[in-house]
Specification:
- The chain is built from 17 helices and 22 strands.
- It is α/β, with parallel strands linked by helices and 479 residues long.
- The chain has two domains: 3-67 and 104-235 and 429-461, Alkaline Phosphatase, subunit A (3-Layer(aba) Sandwich); 238-420, no CATH class.
- The strands form five sheets. A nine-stranded mixed sheet has the order 10-11-12-18-13-14-15-16-17. The chain has a seven-stranded mixed sheet with strand order 5-6-1-7-21-2-22, sandwiched between helices.
- A hairpin with a 6-residue loop joins β13 (317-323) and β14.
- α2 (27-33) packs across α10 and α7 packs antiparallel against α8 (154-167).
- The relative contact order is 0.20.
- The mean pLDDT is 93.
Length: 479
């Protein structure tokens, strides 16, 4: 019986993982992948936990899955009523995490639904996973709380490892296991910290025990083993509270965790915490987004100050994105040295990026190509795959009117970032977007996204790939 074992080391930065492997600190992972089984891939934006799991478990980017961020506002339902409308403002960081499964687009089917003989460990996405095959659902909440407040992350990984080893004799075909300690220690100490490395070394030892047991049982050749991450991380030297930035400019602003503001003019939803979505006039239910031109006029003063231009000039902001009301697609704006604008439009499967007053995504000028072309062109650029993933994100009706992306070293939460994050993620930065994709089978030379592993895993299991997903069949692993 063929099996897939998907090991997700949350927050593992690709270059550090490669460095530690080259230094000989990860002997079992080296042995596992010494079949030309080590590559980098591109994760989903926003590059943050749970949202960036969607590609692996649904085959879709967050826009297609209709989960545009870990925090979002339902502009069709929110009316400013503090208690009655609380569920129209999502945050998967707390009690509302239980809504994640139901919020995923109903026409999508998860790996757990497509492969009923599935097993899950420390997974926030459980749609289709039988409760008896999710033995860590309570431990994840317990140890997650302990890790958050006591900054003691290793017990979570130890719990996953114990359950994973015990599960190997069970009759599952797909197993997803998440190891959270690397991400926790990265936030606490930085992605290069010795404790982060040591947490990965412990994962390596767990992999060694898995390989020994599968070999003893004679099941190793039938098992496709993948080790991946959902995002990388970078050190944060400055925290900018984006909600307070707007309040200082006379804009009544709603933001987590205080979900009430009298007649808010703007809602801010932060992710990661290096990106955010802005919702203009959230108390006016509507189905469509406010164009950038309307958001520009929200500032105080006479005439109203241009908040878009002001925000784009902030050192903390790499660029921001919204829609214009002239039907020209997305407008990307950066502006530290004067407002630099570019447009992104899609037509007949091609994506066109056209600088207007500058090149805020630094792709080298006007270009038109397929999503594959763009992935290759921007692979080593400062914002990999942004030209492809931004239009995809704006497919979701839940995406904000404006998406703000942080510069290196900055994030958008300060007052309520407890404990303080010394490192973070969520941006389009290369260090956030590039992830390790390691396997016990040869991997293709062609650039891959995390979403491309979904059809690859189904192929290994002999299952058909659903139509309408974002994942491409660029890798068909064989024994």
């Amino acid at each position: 019986m063929r099996r897939v074992l998907l090991l997700l080391v949350d927050g593992l930065r690709a270059d550090y993982a490669e460095q530690w492997l080259a230094e000989g600190r990860l002997p079992h992972l080296r042995a596992l992948t010494d079949v030309d089984g080590r590559r980098r891939g591109i994760t989903a934006f926003p590059s943050t936990t749970s949202v960036a799991y969607l590609p692996f478990l649904t085959g879709c980017l967050p826009g297609r899955a209709n989960i545009p961020s870990i925090r979002w506002l339902d502009r069709t339902r929110y009316r400013g009523r503090w208690w009655r409308d609380r569920n129209a403002i999502r945050s998967y960081c707390g009690i509302q995490s239980r809504y994640l499964d139901g919020d995923i687009a109903p026409d999508l089917r998860t790996m757990f639904e497509l492969v009923p003989e599935s097993f899950g460990l420390f997974t926030p996405i459980t749609r289709g996973l039988p409760r008896e095959n999710d033995p860590t659902r309570l431990a994840r909440k317990l140890w997650g709380t302990v890790a958050h407040y006591l900054q003691w992350h290793q017990p979570s990984d130890e719990s996953v490892g114990r359950h994973l080893l015990a599960s190997l004799t069970k009759e599952w075909r797909f197993c997803f296991a998440q190891f959270p300690a690397v991400d926790g220690y990265s936030h606490q100490l930085g992605p290069e910290a010795p404790r982060v490395r040591d947490a990965l070394v412990r994962v390596d030892r767990c992999v060694g025990r898995i390989l020994d047991r599968l070999t003893t049982m004679g099941w190793l050749e039938e098992t496709l083993i993948l080790l991946v991450s959902d995002h990388g991380a970078t050190r944060m030297h400055t925290h900018i509270d984006l909600a307070d930035w707007f309040r200082a400019r006379g804009v009544r602003t709603l933001a987590h965790p205080i979900l009430w503001a009298k007649a808010p003019q703007l809602a801010v939803a932060v992710a990661g915490n290096a990106s955010a979505m802005l919702y203009a006039r959230p108390m006016e239910p509507r189905a469509t987004r406010w164009p950038l031109s309307a958001v520009r006029r929200m500032g105080g003063g006479r005439p109203p100050s241009d908040l878009v231009r002001e925000l784009a000039r902030e050192p903390s902001v790499a660029f921001l994105v919204g829609e214009e009301d002239d039907g020209t697609g997305l407008r990307v704006i950066g502006g530290r040295d004067g407002e630099a604008q570019a447009s992104i439009t899609t037509s007949n499967g091609d994506i066109r990026y056209r600088p207007l007053t500058g090149d805020p995504l630094d792709v080298g000028g006007e270009y038109r190509g397929t999503s594959n072309d763009w992935l290759a062109r921007t692979w080593e650029g400062p914002f990999p795959d942004a030209v492809v993933q931004l239009p995809s994100l704006f497919r979701s009706p839940r995406t904000g009117d404006v998406v703000v992306v942080a510069s290196d070293g900055f994030d958008f939460r300060k007052r309520f970032e407890l404990p303080e994050h010394r490192a973070g993620h969520g941006s389009f930065l290369r260090e956030h977007m590039q992830i390790p994709i390691w396997a016990n089978r040869p991997l293709p030379e062609e650039p891959m996204r995390s979403v491309d592993l979904f059809p690859a895993m189904l192929h290994w299991l002999g299952e058909p790939t659903p139509r309408g997903i974002d994942g491409r069949k660029v890798w068909l692993p064989e024994s």
